[in-house]
Each structure stands twice: as structure tokens, then as C-alpha cells.
């Protein structure tokens, strides 16, 4: 005849706690093992090609430079945010680098074209730019609104609408142009452009008698400089030469100088 075995409640509770702890630890180890087995996002390493690579504390030119990597150093790309890359140097310094310096790095000798595409794929895309400018149009005040679209890197289309206020007349100029830009470093970008548009001039009746409105087709060329102040804000200076195609024997020429600002979207 079997004798009943007495179970100590305290020992039973201890065994239950140990079993629960064991199961919890096993589950945590399994979870960590699964996470470790998951493939991590590949990190790209590039070599600094220019004399210096400036690392900023944040993704924008408004953030201060706190570390400089020298030519030949290797940096690891951690992530991207718009046109800025967060990188880590071999010495463990983390910072943000603009696309201009990163483009020079990934295009250095020994870096494959596929690697360049992997790093810059998100940034060689269309960009919308809008801005305002003011200046002189053949000696008269002019105010302009501009909107541009960057088709590819270095090539953009632009449409501008201008109001010219002369002493004896008021004029409007609608002008479309194709711009070619060539960045110099991280901040300056000179450009050239050609285009055509529509010009309408209206005399002031109170000064010249009856209202007289003349319209003509305009051809023009321009040159200028963009100066990038932050990631999305720039100052721009333009010089333009226009040729008005009139029905008369002699065509009219106009010079324009403007200074303004633009935003990127």
C-alpha cells in the first residue's frame, strides 16, 4: 500500500517560480537569437576624396561644424535625411555631411558606380524651387516671382512673372528659361540660362495722353550665382540681357539686374 506523499506548499511555490523564470529566460534568449539572426541594414563605407569633410551637429548648413575628417579617411554612412547623410568616422565621431561632399567621396577612384547609385539614389531627383527678386530693368524698378523645377542634377526649367514700374509706363514680363548650374563646393553654384517670353508695355494715360499698349516677343540670356545659406534657403543674383522682337526695323535691347531669395521643396 502506497503512502501519500506530503507536498510542502513553500517548496511547490519555489519550484513554480523557478520554472517560470526558466521559461522567461528561454523566451528572451530565443528572441535575442532571432533578432541577431535577422539581416541588418547594409552600411556603406566611402573614402574622403576632398581635402576635408565637414561633419555638422545636424542635417543643415545652419548647424555648426564640430569635426573635420581629412582626405583618405574612411567614413560609414549610417542614414540619410533629405540631402544630408549621417556618417561615422573610424574614430567614432558621428556627424552630418552634405550631399556635395558625399558625392565627391563616393565618386573617388576605386568606388564602383553601383555604390554611388546606392548612396545617392534618393537625391538625384526633381526639386521645386520658388522665390522672389527685385532690381532694375533698364533703369526702372522691377519685382519678380519665380518658380523652377529641377529635372536632373544641374538642369532646371524656370518661369518668372515680373512687374516693371517706369516713370511713364508700366510693363509686365512673362519669361521661361532653361538653366544650367555647376556647383562649386558646398555653397556656391553659378548658372547660365536662355529662354523666351512675352513683354507688354502700357503707357500711363495721365502723363502721355491716350493709353498705348505694346506687346512683343522677348528672347534672353542670363547668368547668375546661387549662394546656399541653409538646406532649403538660398540667395540668388542675376544679370539678364533681353531682345524684344518688334515689328519695327530695329529691335530693342534691355538689361536687367536682380537680387532675391528662393526656397526648395
TrEMBL record:
InterPro entries: Beta-barrel_OMP (IPR027385), OMP/PagP_B-barrel (IPR011250), SH3-like_bac-type (IPR003646). Keywords: Signal. The keyword Signal applies. The lineage of its organism: Bacteria, Pseudomonadati, Pseudomonadota, Gammaproteobacteria, Nevskiales. Residues 42-105 form the SH3b domain. It comes from the Bacteria. This is Outer membrane protein with beta-barrel domain.
Amino acid at each position: 500500500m502506497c503512502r501519500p506523499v506530503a507536498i510542502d506548499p513553500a517548496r511547490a511555490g519555489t519550484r513554480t517560480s523557478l520554472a517560470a523564470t526558466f521559461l522567461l529566460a528561454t523566451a528572451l534568449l530565443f528572441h535575442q537569437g532571432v533578432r541577431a539572426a535577422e539581416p541588418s541594414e547594409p552600411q556603406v563605407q566611402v573614402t574622403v576624396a576632398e581635402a576635408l569633410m565637414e561633419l555638422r551637429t545636424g542635417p543643415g548648413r545652419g548647424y555648426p561644424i564640430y569635426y573635420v575628417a581629412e582626405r583618405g579617411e574612411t567614413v560609414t554612412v549610417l542614414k540619410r535625411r533629405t540631402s544630408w547623410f549621417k556618417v561615422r568616422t573610424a574614430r567614432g565621431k558621428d556627424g552630418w555631411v552634405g550631399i556635395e561632399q558625399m558625392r565627391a567621396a563616393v565618386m573617388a577612384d576605386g568606388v564602383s558606380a553601383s555604390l554611388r547609385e546606392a548612396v545617392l539614389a534618393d537625391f538625384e531627383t526633381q526639386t521645386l524651387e520658388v522665390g522672389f527678386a527685385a532690381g532694375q530693368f533698364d533703369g526702372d524698378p522691377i519685382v519678380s516671382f519665380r518658380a523652377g523645377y529641377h529635372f536632373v542634377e544641374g538642369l532646371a526649367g524656370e518661369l518668372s512673372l515680373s512687374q516693371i514700374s517706369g516713370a511713364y509706363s508700366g510693363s509686365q514680363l512673362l519669361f521661361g528659361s532653361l538653366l544650367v548650374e555647376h556647383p562649386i563646393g558646398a555653397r556656391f553654384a553659378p548658372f547660365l540660362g536662355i529662354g523666351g517670353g512675352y513683354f507688354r508695355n502700357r503707357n500711363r494715360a495721365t502723363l502721355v495722353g491716350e493709353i498705348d499698349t505694346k506687346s512683343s516677343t522677348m528672347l534672353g540670356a542670363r547668368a547668375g550665382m546661387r549662394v546656399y545659406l541653409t538646406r532649403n534657403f538660398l540667395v540668388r543674383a542675376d544679370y539678364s540681357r533681353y531682345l524684344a522682337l518688334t515689328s519695327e526695323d530695329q529691335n530693342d535691347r534691355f538689361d536687367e539686374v536682380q537680387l532675391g531669395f528662393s526656397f526648395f521643396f
